[in-house]
């Protein structure tokens, strides 16, 4: 799954220290790879914006199998947005026990369908249409950007809106039984509209089975109005009941100025604390069990405007920053109720990081560069020109001595990591 484990920590096991990283192969596919590649045995599995899923040989990049799941929605058919075409954009998830890879495809009729594919040959094993909370007439206003999650016998799928927040939609999480059959469970952000759940890491699972999601701005923009449940972190039960929430005291101003928390998902630190940093640039430290309600953070401090997904190593969270610096290392001291910025990396190192081989790996998605950073100082130890354009919030996967990065045209493999 995205970042390997249910807590989305982004720690890669068994990766050696890097030595002369270099591009070993490139695979050109039928569309952009927005999600993180999944590494399953000797396969690199990716999904494209053209509603395709590919299994590639991890050594050569050759196609082991390819499944085309439909015709994606053209940007010209959508009320707003910035992805063309709009097919599969969320990172898939793999159920090891059943050998099934799950993806959510959007098709030209704007429907979103959960599809389960055999890891052996790409054959369709599960198919379940997911209705949107605002009804069929508004399906075109939804986008499935976050990574999928598996827990409690379900695949959890989160939804937000299109770039531009046009039309009627609500941020939502839907739980679908792994079999595809049976009742759905659903959480809908309780605002009049918007409240997108779009952070690319998808739902974060805690040790007690709780799911944590962050949401974007809603339609309430005045402190004199009742809080609408948006611009928040929510702790959800496996049945998707909201058990507790946190919202900044500035929630109304955040809503008015599009400074939502939902640009990242929360980072779980030590099993009992969360760090969330959104567009406003403030980092909030939360108690993972009792999130604190409005203004109830344990601590807060300026960090950066953050977009994408953080990684966690011990008590340090590597935050993907944009506009006011690149990746930033933040030390979390829950007992001392303190957040400390330890370092800031190269200003253009703005992708979603992972940790492995004793270094922090992060992309420059605008320039197409992969960096290996010293985890103590943030200084570059290695950098590799990937020779390809990358999607926003670009991430990567590590296994053995290789890194795999999705691009706007396929996948790049980097050896020597």
Task: Outline the structure in words.
With about 425 residues, the chain is an all-beta fold. It contains 1 helix and 36 strands. The protein has one helix at about 250-255, and strands spanning about 20-30, 40, 45, 50-55, 65-70, 95, 100-105, 110-120, 125-130, 140-145, 150, 155-160, 170-175, 185-190, 205, 210-215, 235, 240-245, 265-270, 275, 280-285, 295, 300, 305, 310-315, 315-320, 320, 330-335, 340-345, 355, 360-365, 370-375, 380-385, 395-400, 400-405, 410-415. Strands 10, 11, 12, 13 and 14 form a 5-stranded antiparallel beta sheet that branches. A 5-stranded mixed beta sheet has the order 15-16-17-18-22, with no helix packed on it. Strands 1-36-35-34 form a 4-stranded antiparallel beta sheet, with no helix packed on it. Strand 19 (about 265-270) and strand 20 (about 275) form a beta hairpin. The longest helix is centred in the middle third of the chain and has 7 residues, at about 250-255. The model has no long low-confidence stretch (mean pLDDT about 95).
Beta-strand percentage?
35-45%
Number of helices: 1
Structural class: mainly beta
Q: What's the pLDDT, averaged over the residues?
A: 97
| Helix content percent band | under 10%
Which consecutive residue ranges, at least 5 long each, have pLDDT under 50? Answer: none
Q: Give a quick account of the main beta sheet: strands, pairing sense, barrel closure.
A: 5 strands, antiparallel
Overall geometric form: globular
Please report the total strand number as a whole number: 36
The Rg value, from CA coordinates, equals 20 Å
């Amino acid at each position: 799954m995205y970042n390997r484990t249910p807590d989305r920590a982004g720690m890669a096991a068994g990766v050696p220290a890097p030595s002369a990283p270099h591009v070993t192969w490139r695979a050109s596919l039928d569309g952009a790879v927005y999600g993180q590649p999944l590494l399953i045995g000797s396969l690199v599995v990716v999904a494209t914006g053209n509603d395709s899923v590919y299994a590639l040989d991890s050594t050569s990049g050759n196609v082991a199998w390819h499944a085309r799941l439909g015709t994606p929605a053209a940007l010209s058919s959508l009320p707003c947005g910035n992805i063309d075409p709009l097919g599969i954009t969320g990172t898939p998830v793999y159920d090891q026990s059943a050998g099934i890879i799950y993806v959510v495809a959007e098709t030209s009729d704007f429907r979103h369908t959960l599809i389960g594919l055999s890891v052996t040959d790409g054959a369709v094993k599960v198919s379940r249409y997911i209705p949107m909370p605002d009804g069929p007439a508004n399906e075109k206003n939804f986008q499935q950007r976050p990574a999928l999650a598996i827990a409690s016998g379900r695949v959890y799928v989160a939804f937000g809106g299109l770039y531009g927040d046009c039309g009627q939609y609500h941020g939502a999480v839907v739980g679908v039984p792994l079999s595809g059959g049976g009742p759905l469970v659903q959480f809908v952000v309780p605002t009049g509209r918007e409240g997108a759940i779009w952070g690319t890491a998808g739902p974060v699972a805690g040790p007690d089975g709780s799911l944590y999601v962050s949401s974007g701005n809603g339609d309430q923009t005045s402190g004199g109005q009742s809080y609408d449940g948006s611009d928040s972190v929510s702790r959800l039960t496996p049945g998707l009941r909201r058990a507790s929430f946190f919202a900044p005291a500035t929630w109304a101003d955040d809503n008015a100025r599009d400074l939502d928390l939902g640009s990242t998902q929360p980072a779980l630190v030590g099993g009992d604390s969360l760090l969330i940093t959104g567009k406003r640039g403030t980092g909030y430290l939360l108690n993972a069990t009792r999130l604190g309600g409005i203004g109830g953070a344990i601590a807060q401090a300026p960090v950066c405007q953050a977009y994408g997904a953080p990684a966690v190593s011990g008590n340090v969270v590597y935050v993907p920053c944009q506009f006011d610096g690149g990746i930033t290392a933040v030390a979390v001291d829950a007992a001392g109720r303190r957040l400390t910025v330890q370092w800031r990396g190269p200003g253009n190192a703005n992708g979603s990081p992972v940790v492995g081989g004793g270094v922090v790996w992060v992309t420059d998605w605008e320039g197409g560069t992969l960096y290996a950073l010293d985890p103590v100082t943030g200084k570059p130890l290695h950098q590799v020109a990937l020779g390809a354009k990358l999607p926003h919030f670009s991430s990567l996967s590590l296994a053995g001595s290789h890194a795999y990065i999705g691009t706007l045209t396929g996948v790049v493999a980097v050896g020597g990591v």
